[in-house]
């Protein structure tokens, strides 16, 4: 019984922060894409390639969310790399917009 409880706790600690991060990253990146499109319209369509790349990254990320199996460590690693890239991109786009 205690072993099962420990494994449950381990599971929660392992996957719940990742889920929270995923939802947070998706939200921030969607908002930053919207801001970027508005900004490109205002700025004379300079950053359109960057926002297209950004949208493609999000589509790929959502596709990964659908197809990830819990056993595949390479998928989870790839997931974390995409998370990191999305965070960097969203911070960068917010930086471009507000400064």
Features:
mainly alpha, 3 helices, 99 residues
In short:
The chain is mainly α and 99 residues long. It has helices at residues 2-43, 48-67, 73-98.
Please render the helix and strand layout as text:
Elements: H1 2-43, H2 48-67, H3 73-98
Helix pairs in contact: 1-2, 1-3, 2-3
Tell me about this structure.
There is one protein chain. By secondary structure, this protein is mostly helical. It has one domain. 89% of the residues lie in helices and 0% in strands. It has 3 helices and no strands. The longest helix is centred in the first third of the chain and has 42 residues. The protein is elongated, with a radius of gyration of 17 Å.
Q: Could you state the order of secondary-structure elements as H and E?
A: HHH
Radius of gyration: 17 Å
Mean pLDDT: 67
Helix content: over 70%
Distance separating the two termini? 55 Å
| Assembly category | single chain
The share of residues in extended strands comes to under 5%
What is the count of distinct domains?
1
Number of strands: 0
Low-confidence region ranges: none
Shape: elongated
Number of helices: 3
**Class from helix and strand fractions:** mainly alpha
Please outline the major beta sheet. Answer: none
């Amino acid at each position: 019984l205690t072993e099962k409880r420990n494994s449950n706790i381990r599971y929660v600690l392992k996957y719940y922060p990742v889920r929270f991060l995923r939802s947070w990253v998706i939200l921030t990146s969607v908002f930053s894409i919207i801001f970027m499109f508005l900004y490109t319209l205002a700025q004379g369509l300079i950053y359109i390639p960057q926002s297209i790349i950004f949208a493609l990254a999000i589509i790929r990320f959502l596709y990964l969310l659908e197809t990830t199996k819990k056993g595949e460590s390479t998928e989870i690693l790839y997931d974390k790399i995409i998370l990191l890239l999305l965070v960097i991109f969203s911070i960068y786009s917010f930086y471009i917009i507000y400064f």
